[in-house]
Amino acid sequence: MKLNTLFLMLLTLATAFKVHAGSHYGKITKFDLHSDNWSKYDVNDVGFLSFYVEGLPNSCNQENGRNRVVITTEHPLFNAVLSTVISAKTLDRALYVNYLDSCKVRDKAWDFGYIGFR
User: What span is annotated as the signal peptide, if there is one (predicted)?
Assistant: First the structure.
């Protein structure tokens, strides 16, 4: 198979499954760590990191949505995202956030896509 054909096939697949809603560059204004049922201690509960980014649109374009992104402890990048968010907040540095076009994890928070420094 020619390299051009392979490239076109991969490009077609990548665009066919495009699900991200947007990306944003800004500073972390605050972050929260909590379990799903934070009023009761349960070691089997799922943990959440919610981080707020200045200028981020309200979640899922809801009038009462929040300018935050959420990720759970079940996500394979959770520890890396937590470290990145803490570093960005501590250093007062902006970061690049990509969020999905969904609010399934928490109804007033964008679902996590990816994150990085630029």
Answer: 1-21
Q: Give the residue-averaged pLDDT of 48-71.
A: 94
CATH topology of domain 19-116: OB fold (Dihydrolipoamide Acetyltransferase, E2P) (2.40.50)
Question: pLDDT at position 38, please?
Answer: 82
CA distances to 13, 43, 86 from 52, rounded to whole Å, are 32, 26, 12
Task: Tell how many helices (H) and how many strands (E) occur in the chain.
Answer: 2, 5
- Residue 100 CA: distances (Å) to CA of 9, 23, 93, 105, 111: 24, 9, 23, 11, 5
- Of 71, 74, 70, 69, the C-alpha closest to 44 is 74
Please give the full DSSP string across 67-111, using - where no structure is assigned.
SEEEEETTSTTHHHHHHHHHHHHHHT-EEEEEEES---SSTTSEE
Percent of the chain beyond pLDDT 70? 83
